[in-house]
Amino acid sequence: MSFLFKIIGALCSGVLLYWAFDTTEFMWLSVVSFIILICVLKNITRVILRCILLTIFILTFVFLQFSFLFKTADLIDNSVLLLNLIITLIYLVPIYAVSFIKSKYYIEITLLGFLISEYIFATISIGNQLFQLGIILCNIPFIVQWYEFTGIFAGSFWIILISYFLYRSLFYKKYFLVLIGIIVIPIIISLIIGKQYGDFHNNRKVIFTSLTNNNDADSMINGLISQNTEKIDYILMPEGALTFRNQVFKFSPTLTKLRRFVKKNGNICFIIGIYTNIEESYDNSVLIFSKDKMRQRYKILKIPFCEYLPYPHILSKIDFINEHVWYKMDEKKNESDLYIHSQDTIAPLICYESLSSKYVCDLTQQGANIFFVSSSNSFIDSNHIEQINTKILRANAIITRKMFVRSVEHGISCIITPKGDFELVSKNQSVSVLKIANLNYYKPFYAKHFLVINKIYLFALLIFITLLGIYGSQK
Which residue, among 454, 461, 458, 233, has the nearest Cα to 361 in the 3D structure? Predict the structure, then answer.
């Protein structure tokens, strides 16, 4: 295979991996992607040539995965290109590092290097989980119920393992039985774990809404408060459903009607997202109305380079970067991350916060027994990212064994069970739907020990690379 064909193969591998993150029908492409990548790297003994091919693969994948940002380029200018290059660099540095290990097992070492890159980007403050291979499997949650014990990283390792041994089976006619075991045994374990969980009996009636755009919020609120909601426990509305200047929301006629409505209807809790513009900055928060009082919870986890500038002591000195933090938010503290309503401990999250497995595990340790997510897709306007977001929520539901209720503007509003089962309520429509949500107080193994488990996973990858380097260098 000429080097030109290998370049084309690296490009195709990146494209297929991007598609694998989309719908259920495409998830198998993740395995095909890595089989192609292995074929591309085969017989490339020169480190510089491998690095070129891996750079093409990572650049293609990253730029496609974040391609939604280019649609907003008129708002965020050339910083889109810079952001993609930063992500690419974060991925490539560990892969480049392991590429210099002289070993006949350089392909295996490269695949493990990719997993280390994924781990680093998923866990650092400027990273996220949008690139995590393991979330692809959450389209079929019954096969990954063991995430409760391992977290998502084990799913990433499983995909790489299947890809590698399928390649060996197809091209070398070896390890076929090993491949069958690698595929079947985790699925059997998952089915056994999944059977242990029936329906939880702490039921709550929840109305959650979906908005085509937030201009429909006032009419939606008027419709909700005119209904007979005597037996409703919670009402959830999207992120930024209402927008106010400064702190005038305290005198808003709409919110005044909400306060009166909640006081009139006993045990109901109304959760709604609001934006407040303050000169050149803004606040993103949710208001939690109950009969006793109104509470405001500010967004804690912010989007790096969008809502805050990471590593400000260094990056604030670079004018171009500092000027392109698009929606800079001030640091605000909350009384608590969790809120008690009646006997329930609820976690009202705002969009990006729900996509952090670390954060939802922290809240589960603190006692959260249900997650309400107010979100918005209007700025991003990407169905692909919405698909990924719901996969991450499904993974987080399995990890924490908690119900996730998601209300979105211009996106996918859904309810996700503790087993990761997904029920689409609406997509890009303005509707309100009544559903039953379950609460539980169970704290799963991974949610309690995720920091230790993640470190063990990283340490195991490093041990594998070291052993492959040692044995692969022997003549």
Answer: 454
Measuring CA to CA, which residue among 78, 100, 98 is closest to residue 326? 78
Span 53-77, pLDDT tens digits: 999 999 999 988 887 776 664 555 5
**Helix 29-41 / helix 47-65 crossing angle, nearest 10 deg:** 160
CA distance 270 to 254: 13
Question: If you search the block for the tokens 């249900």, which residue do you land on?
Answer: 370
Cα gap 213→415, rounded to integer Å? 20
Q: How far apart are the C-alpha atoms of 75 and 94, rounded to whole Å?
A: 32
pLDDT of residue 364: 95
- For residue 41, the tally of other CB atoms under 10 A from its CB is 22
Sign of the Cα pseudo-torsion (225, 228, 234, 239, in order): negative
Decide: helix, strand or coil at residue 257: helix
Q: Domain segments of the chain: what residues? A: 3-196+451-473, 202-439
* Residue ranges of the chain with per-residue pLDDT less than 50: 73
Quick one: CA torsion of 272, 275, 211, 360, rounded to 10 degrees? -60
DSSP string, 366-410: HT--EEEEEEE-TTT--HHHHHHHHHHHHHHHHHHT--EEEEEES
Q: How far is CA 182 from CA 53, 165, 170, 174, 278, in A?
A: 28, 9, 15, 14, 55
Tell me whether strands 202-210 and 234-236 are parallel, antiparallel or unpaired: parallel
pTM value is 0.92
Collapsing DSSP to helix, strand or coil, 157 comes out as helix
CATH number of this structure's domain 202-439: 3.60.110.10
The phi and psi torsions of 269 (rounded to 5 degrees) equal -125, 125
Q: Give which of 154, 451, 42, 272 is closest to 145, Cα–Cα.
A: 154
